[in-house]
Write a structure and sequence with these properties.
This protein is an alpha+beta fold. Helices cover 18% and strands 45% of the residues. It has helices at residues 2-29, 256-279, 286-299; strands at residues 34-40, 44-46, 50-59, 66-71, 77-79, 85-89, 92-101, 106-108, 111-117, 122-128, 131-136, 144-149, 151-161, 166-176, 190-197, 202-212, 217-224, 229-236, 239-240, 304-307, 312-314, 323-326, 331-339, 342-346, 352-356. Strands 1, 3, 5, 6 and 7 form a five-stranded antiparallel sheet that branches. β23 (331-339) and β24 form a beta hairpin.
Length: 363
């Protein structure tokens, strides 16, 4: 009987010890080693705005591999950076996500951070709850370009004659923290994108707009998130006689220089001829012949080239440029110039366009 009681006590002691061990292990597992907090939490955002959200992370574990994040389903927001931009400051990690506001209502998603420590084969998690955002919808004027940004700047521009009633403006603009792809103007005859470089940090767009010849200054606006106000950008209409040249040369230029060069060359040739008649030395003819050759070269009318049937004639010499005519048959058009991979042609309605060199007939 005593022996049975002794064995029973040993069994209970063993089970009690196991329970204590499990409790200690459970307590150790539940110990926090990762702490998360919001560093900049916006309460109000603007529809169409790109904003940043920074999380401050602190780990009490000295050696770990990485911290990863999982976001709950988004409401009224589009995540632009799946992996956050990380900055280390002392013991803290500052993780910045970028979001685009695309809904009339929105909330910051709940965020789960996971500490990965492969050396000890453990995973630790921390959690931030979701937060509602106040979304402001703008009430802009008719000149609004749909852009909400930290900044939007005109880099280059050029205005040329499009037809008897319209001018065409081609301009390059850069933007910071903006959804540049939604750029669009109102109350214009025609418009479109020629090229675009999208990034939520810095973006760039080459855009064209066709306007009435009566307009002397063309303006549009965007909303500046730093100044919290609408900013106007104005392009003075200075019509260039030359047609759009290249995407990297869009500013107005003085086309009278070519005529001036011809006049100077002709003057040099005339002086050379006078010297020949005066000195009776024909070696001086070289001073007349070379300038005359140059004048003749410039004065020679543009050659005609053959364009294949079904070729696209674009507004600018860029790939995937705006097409304003497709040749229904073989075309013979006047060549106005060329750059790499493109030839500038003058259409029968006197408009200027660009055609790819591969679309020129091979004789």
């Amino acid at each position: 009987m005593i022996r049975l009681l002794f064995l029973t006590l040993i069994l209970f002691a063993t089970l009690f010890a196991e329970d204590i061990k499990e409790d200690l292990i459970s307590t150790t597992d539940k110990k926090n080693v990762l702490y998360l907090s919001y560093e900049n939490l916006p309460s109000r955002v603007i529809k169409g705005e790109i904003f940043s959200l920074t999380i401050k992370a602190l780990s009490t574990v000295e050696k770990f591999t990485d911290i990863t994040y999982e976001l709950s389903p988004l409401k009224g927001l589009e995540l632009l950076s799946y992996f956050p931009v990380r900055q280390e400051k002392g013991m803290y990690y500052y993780e910045t996500f970028y979001f685009l506001v695309n809904g009339n209502s929105a909330e910051i998603p709940s965020i789960t951070g996971t500490l990965l420590d492969y050396q000890e084969h453990i995973f630790k998690k921390a959690y931030l709850s979701s937060k509602k955002l106040e979304v402001i919808s703008l009430n802009p004027k008719n000149d609004f370009s749909n852009i909400v940004a930290k900044s939007l700047d005109l880099v280059e521009y050029k205005t040329t004659s499009y037809d008897a009633e319209h001018n065409i403006i081609v301009f390059v603009a850069t933007a910071s923290q903006a959804n540049i792809s939604v750029f669009k103007l109102q109350n214009v005859y025609k418009q479109g994108v020629e090229s675009i470089e999208e990034s939520y940090f810095d973006s760039k767009i080459t855009y064209y707009v066709i306007i009435d010849k009566k307009i002397q200054n063309f303006s549009f606006s965007y909303f500046n998130t730093i100044k919290n106000s609408f900013i106007n950008l104005t392009i003075p209409i200075i019509v260039d006689d030359d047609s759009v040249s290249t995407q990297s040369d869009l500013k107005p230029t003085d086309q009278s220089r070519q005529r001036l060069k011809m006049a100077i060359a002709a003057s040099v040739a005339l002086v050379g001829l006078l010297i020949v008649f005066w000195r009776k030395k024909y070696i001086y003819l070289i001073f007349a012949i070379i300038p005359l050759i140059y004048v003749a070269y410039i004065a020679v009318p543009s050659q005609e080239i053959c364009i294949k049937q079904g070729s696209s004639i674009t507004l600018l010499p860029v790939n995937n440029g705006t097409i304003f005519e497709i040749t229904p048959s073989r075309y013979y058009l006047q060549k106005e110039g060329s750059i790499e991979n493109f030839t500038k042609v003058k259409l029968k309605n006197s408009k200027i366009g660009w055609v790819k060199n591969e679309d020129i007939c091979s004789y």
